[in-house]
Design goal:
Helix content of chain B: 25-40%
Order of helices and strands of chain B: HHEEEHHEHEEHHHHEEEHHEEEEEH
Strand content of chain B: 5-15%
Largest sheet of chain B: 8 strands, mixed
Largest interface: A-B, 77 and 79 residues
Number of helices of chain B: 12
Shape of chain A: elongated
Radius of gyration of chain A: 36 Å
Oligomer: heterodimer
Distance between the termini of chain A: 27 Å
Radius of gyration of chain B: 22 Å
Structural class of chain A: alpha+beta
Number of helices of chain A: 26
């Protein structure tokens, strides 16, 4: 034992040495590269502008005497890398580095700052347990219990991080949420599992005014009888059994007895109630009766009219009865006519006397395994079965016990969180970081929540159980994308990536944009959803997202776009003849969320393109940056563009706005709700722009062409966003390798959408997990 | 929305009272209609009418020229934004000169809106992150909830009108958690606010199906406690096998389980009957003004029935770009706040500020008209109102617009405009309020003492 221990100590000690040596060597290598390649590069190509007393964009690249100085500015390097790689810098009119020089510098940045060398062993990252978000909760309940009623719609809105609402680290558990989980579980079991309870048997209620009458008249409080009379109706009873007959009534009193209401069933008087309820404050009176199935006559009669006009108390002179309604409920003792599907599915075995426990174990084991997305342990099942005992101890039924067990499962963290268990990280591997493939149940859940925002189905579970899910992965992915449940992917990924969820809260100025209403808002969203859906269904190139010659319209939206011959409220595929329309950029959803309520915002549109399509977010504005004067009283001969150009004359603003505004100007032909315009007020729209790299364009079609030339940036951006969504965590520097692979794979397969999904699913971060 | 009106009228008719919402004696704990019960109640109330505190937030700063009175002391002047509060002038203090240093950049660059909301009640400088590791501080209301919250059914209420963000990070690199949450239970756990009046109502009053017997209710609560026991055990066993970040999530979960257990245990008391004659609101009204009013109605009700003593209410998330077309301001609020000195824009901002202040006046008047113990609810309340941004264009976090209404159970002498020395921490106000709530704490964010002049 002593020997073994010390061997471990020695091994660790040696390992520590090796690691330290490696680190030192790497540092030396990096230092050499910095001095020999990076520093001269910066001096030659960058420092003219990014140097001196007032460096451009406040980025001084002439102040890195050594590696330590470069390290101190660690935040600046990813940006430098991006601008170099996209060849935005150096600007076109300046001296350009050779491809080899560029590669050397970018390679150095990658290696030095992220420590990422894609040729070495890769870190797949480690995702924090993810709480189901609202959409996932709703869908999971639908698929688990078979009850589709969106209990999570009342939950607080989920926290958003890295642009998405499914990020494990960010999703919190506010106290109110647990209350909601408990209340939702209550409702779910109530709907899904039938428990016989007399007070829940079906009721038939008949308002007094709607049935047949002998005597009396309609008045406040229902049907009023100033003298004897009767209300009656026909009732159809579904089965023989015990029923409760009710009447809700009030009375005014006179004489020495209370007003009497007789219950008549098939012309027999079966009960007489003394109605003490004060006139206007009706109460329920009832009796029980066992009767046969079929049609019956049910009546309520006033039988003891009394009049005493001489009574000194004016309130004791006239005995009258008022009836609000009649009601029949039952059968109290019979089985319900039809069990809900969910009940049969969950309670798939019937308990027999003395074998309740076996049956309960079977039911609970199956339910908990599906809910926990892995086989439930016998300990878990044993603890859950106690709820059946608890119900029995309270004199309640087997079904009630199952309800409680199901409720406990639905509030358990093992259901509410997607847990990936590291208790046994790959023991065979010799690595100390515990990098291991996640097990197949975990893989099934990653897949299903990625593509369906819901739990795995039986086929996924089955292959995971047999240990052949990885082998059949491509087949499953293809199958899942064809399943209508993949609509959830569009609803959740696409609306967040493109930020069009914001549309729900936007209110364009009704004076300037009277055309905007909820119908148009919904149509805008639907267009983008269907458009993306077509890319998925037809496995089209993802570059179609930038530009395509088709879209989906209904009459309302077609009119908005000025496209003729589309009639009716239903959406259909429409071929676009105008090359200015087509692609998400030109869809009203995106154009509206990137506008101000009163006007377009080329800045917001440009920023959106940089952030959502190219993954190059501009730096934030200084806190005291002003907005344009926007009082509606500007000289009408001055266009928005001219006003913004004045604004940009300020060099402080120019450096950030130069790559941003021109992109937005390319879309100026679309107004703040996405309709086409040739003029802005009295001025012809000028939709031309020139980017810092010299690329210039005029109008949406040419802007799209420029973006298509930057398809590598776009594809990497899309891959990174989708990987973030698929993993439920923010990307780390080491994920760059996976993003690279996915982008390369896409290009190899003509940018087909399926190649993107397959690339993500096959990637290390999706398949594996670091142990600690 | 209209249902609410009808039900409110019905309720009024049924009970013969003239208050805006039926703030009825029948809803006070332990009351019946008998005169005896009432006199007992009154005697008890007089002995110890509890002090309540609400923290009300408005976003994007204020048009300060239309907010700050020029005269100090009693009989101060009322600039346009405070005009709506004229009838309540003697019930409130305008506190000028307070600062919330945590809102400042301190080298973190942009993001003043996120920092403003997250620092407002915490007095801490929130960590700049839009992902995993959010960190601010415990908020004043949650300190109070922790200390006196056990005395009421709900330790605190968190109300708002805007749900969280649907997409994106909210303010230049800051998680949306910052700009949406005033209440922070721990430094990493914001308390989500309820924005749907129907759900607030159900939470407050709909405890179980109508007509449920005491016995059935007790059984249901026993079952719920068993379920909570079960899931707490699940969480504890799970926790042992997971990494640090995972454990943090399960700790959050466990805390909420414990809290809910306490609440259920408290609801065993028979005095918690709901108001029989109020019908619940049907959902979130389309009309923003109506939305604010109903939230205030519900808050007043919760205070009166002593269901909670601590509340936060966020009129709109910080950085909100809501359009106020219904008062003739169709531009986005945040867009406007970058006014760059433009007077027309400032006038529009002032209009929005006045709109919010008019609802504050509505709420305060309601509290003032509601008898409570030996005085009114407002007498036993401390209602703090304001923003952690001064001028929306400058994004300054000093010279904040802050107002404190109510007498705090006789511990505050309102009716004055007090000017504090520059850079006096806003948290000193929170510390002063906490003392008056019986929730004294030595440390809260950057607070370094209490505000002396509140009492005289």
């Amino acid at each position: 034992m002593t020997y073994r221990l010390s061997a471990v100590v020695v091994a660790v000690f040696l390992a520590g040495h090796v690691v330290a040596d490696q680190a030192r060597a790497a540092r030396d290598k990096s230092d050499t590269a910095f001095r020999e390649q990076v520093k001269p590069f910066l001096a030659k190509y960058c420092a003219d502008c990014h140097g001196g007393a007032e460096p451009e964009s406040k980025l001084a690249l002439d102040r890195f005497p050594d590696l330590a100085a470069a390290d101190a500015q660690r935040d600046a390097w990813p940006k430098i890398r991006k601008y170099l790689q996209s060849r935005i810098m150096p600007p076109k009119d300046a001296a350009q580095p050779t491809a080899a020089e560029l590669k050397a510098v970018i390679g150095w940045i990658d290696l030095h700052f992220s420590g990422v060398d894609c040729s070495l062993r890769r870190d797949p990252g480690r995702v924090t347990i993810r709480r189901l978000n609202r959409a996932e909760y709703n869908n999971t309940i639908r698929d688990l219990v078979g009850v589709d009623f969106h209990p999570a719609d009342d939950f607080p809105v989920d926290d958003v991080g890295y642009g998405f609402d499914n990020i494990g680290d960010v999703l919190s558990m506010p106290p109110i949420l647990l209350e909601k989980y408990l209340a939702a579980a209550d409702q779910i079991v109530d709907k899904a599992i039938y428990v016989h309870a007399p007070d829940k048997t079906p009721k038939q209620t008949f308002l007094a005014g709607k049935v047949q009458h002998q005597g009396g008249a309609e008045g406040a409080g229902g049907w009023q009888f100033p003298s004897n009379g009767e209300l009656f109706t026909e009732v159809e009873l579904p089965a023989r059994g015990q029923y409760v007959l009710r009447g809700r009534a009030s009375a005014s009193q006179a004489g020495n007895e209370l007003a009497k209401m007789a219950f008549k069933f098939d012309d027999k008087q079966v009960h007489v109630a003394e109605v003490a309820a004060e006139w206007g404050s009706a109460e329920l009176y009832e009796t029980k009766l066992t009767v046969n199935k079929g049609k019956h006559r049910f009546g309520l009669a006033f039988v003891n009219d009394f009049y005493d006009p001489q009574n000194p108390d004016p309130k004791r002179r006239d005995r009258n009865l008022a009836i609000e309604y009649l009601e029949v409920q039952g059968p109290l003792d019979g089985p319900p006519p039809e069990m809900p599907e969910s009940h049969k599915k969950i309670l798939y075995c019937q308990p027999t006397k003395g074998h309740e426990r076996e049956c309960a174990e079977k039911i609970i084991s199956r339910f908990a395994s599906r809910a926990f997305r892995r086989p439930a342990t016998s300990d878990e099942v044993g603890r859950l079965v106690k709820f059946v005992d608890l119900a029995a101890a309270n004199g309640e039924s087997f079904e009630r016990g199952i309800q409680l067990a199901v409720e406990a499962v639905l509030v358990s963290p093992k259901f509410l969180f997607r847990v990936e268990d590291d208790s046994k990280p790959d023991e065979k591997s010799s690595n100390t970081d515990g990098i291991h493939e996640i097990n197949e149940y975990e893989l099934a859940a990653r897949l299903s929540y990625f593509l369906w925002s819901s739990m795995p189905d039986d086929e996924l579970f089955h292959d995971a159980y047999l240990g052949r899910l990885r082998k059949n992965l491509r087949k499953h992915v293809g199958r899942m994308l064809k399943d209508p449940k993949s609509r959830a992917f569009v609803d959740n990924f696409v609306t967040q990536w493109l930020e069009i969820r914001k549309l729900k809260q936007l209110a364009p100025d009704p004076m300037r944009f009277p055309a905007f209403n909820d119908e148009l808002r919904e149509a805008m969203l639907e267009e983008t959803r269907l458009f993306f859906g077509a890319i998925v269904d037809e496995d089209r190139s993802v570059l179609d997202l930038i530009d395509a010659d088709f879209t989906f319209l209904n009459e309302r939206l077609a009119k908005h776009y000025g496209i003729r011959d589309v009639t009716g409220p239903e959406f259909r595929r429409v071929h676009l003849n105008d090359p200015d329309r087509g692609g998400v950029l030109t869809q009203a959803s995106v154009l509206t969320i990137t506008s101000n309520p009163t006007r377009t915002s080329p800045v917001k549109r440009g920023k959106w393109i940089l952030e959502q399509l190219l993954d190059m977010p501009p730096p934030p504005p200084p806190p005291n940056a002003g907005d344009l004067k926007d009082d509606g009283k500007v000289d009408a001969s001055v266009s928005l563009r001219q006003r913004m150009e004045q604004h940009r004359a300020n060099p402080l603003c120019a450096s950030c706005h130069a790559p941003m505004d021109p992109l937005g100007f390319g879309l100026e032909n679309f107004d703040a709700i996405g309709a086409w315009r040739d003029r802005e007020g009295a001025i012809a729209v000028d939709a031309s722009g020139t980017l810092p790299d010299g690329a210039s364009f005029k109008g949406p079609r040419e802007l799209k062409a420029v973006l298509k030339q930057r398809k590598d940036d776009f594809v990497r951006c899309l891959a990174a966003k989708m990987l973030t969504y698929a993993l439920g965590r923010g990307l780390e520097p080491y994920d760059q390798c996976a993003v690279d692979d996915i982008a390369v794979g896409l290009a190899k397969h003509d940018y087909k959408f399926s190649a993107l999904i397959h690339g993500i699913v096959a990637s290390d971060p999706f398949q594996k997990r670091r142990g600690k | 929305m209209s249902n609410w009106h009808i039900s409110r009228r019905t309720a009024l008719k049924g009970l013969g009272t003239a208050l805006g919402l039926p703030l009825l004696d029948s809803m006070l704990p332990g009351t019946a209609f008998s005169p005896f019960a009432r006199s007992v109640q009154a005697a008890e109330a007089a002995r110890a009418a509890p002090t309540r505190a609400a923290f009300l937030y408005v976003p994007n700063g204020m048009h300060m020229a239309d907010w700050t009175p020029t005269k100090v002391g009693p009989g101060f002047d009322l600039p346009p934004i405070l005009q709506h509060l004229a009838p309540l002038q003697n019930d409130m203090l305008v506190l000028t000169g307070l600062a919330q240093d945590g809102g400042r950049a301190h080298g973190d660059g942009g993001g003043d809106h996120a920092r403003a909301m997250a620092s407002f009640l915490t007095g801490t400088h929130p960590k700049k992150t839009h992902g995993a590791d959010i960190k601010a501080g415990v908020s004043a209301d949650q300190v109070a909830a922790e200390k006196v919250g056990r005395l009421t059914r709900f330790p605190s209420l968190e109300l708002g009108c805007d749900a969280g963000a649907q997409t994106g990070n909210c303010d230049t690199g800051y998680s949306c958690a910052y700009s949406h949450n005033a209440a922070w239970k721990t430094e990493s756990q914001p308390v989500a606010k309820e924005v749907n009046p129907r759900l607030v109502f159900e939470r407050l009053f709909s405890d179980g199906p109508p007509g449920e017997t005491q016995e059935a209710k007790a059984r249901r609560n026993r079952y719920r406690l068993s379920v909570l026991d079960f899931v707490a055990e699940d969480a504890s066993s799970l926790k042992k096998r997971l990494g640090a970040n995972d454990q943090r999530k399960l700790d959050e979960y466990l805390t909420t389980v414990r809290e809910l257990e306490r609440r259920i245990a408290r609801s065993e008391r028979p005095a918690e009957e709901g108001p029989a004659k109020i019908t619940k609101p049907s959902g979130i009204p389309d009309d923003y003004a109506e939305h604010i009013r109903i939230m205030y109605d519900l808050l007043a009700l919760a205070f009166q029935a002593d269901m909670t003593r601590i509340a936060t209410f966020v009129h709109a998330n910080e950085g909100s770009n809501r359009s106020y077309a219904f008062i003739g301001v169709s531009d986005g609020h945040h867009d406007l706040s970058h006014h760059a000195g433009d007077q027309e824009k400032q006038a529009k901002i002032s209009k929005i500020n006045q709109f919010h202040a008019s609802h504050l006046a509505y709420f305060l008047k309601k509290l003032k008209d509601t008898p409570d113990g030996d005085g009114s609810l407002l007498d036993h309340a401390m209602i703090a109102y304001g923003s952690a941004i001064g001028d929306g264009n400058r994004h300054n976090h000093d010279d904040l617009p802050i107002l404190l209404a109510g007498r705090g159970g006789g511990t505050i002498a309102p009716g004055r405009h007090i000017r504090y020395e520059r850079e006096t921490p806003l948290n000193n106000l929170w510390l002063s309020m906490l003392d008056r709530l019986g929730a004294h704490t030595d440390r809260l964010g950057d607070g370094n003492g209490t505000l002396a002049e509140l009492a005289d």
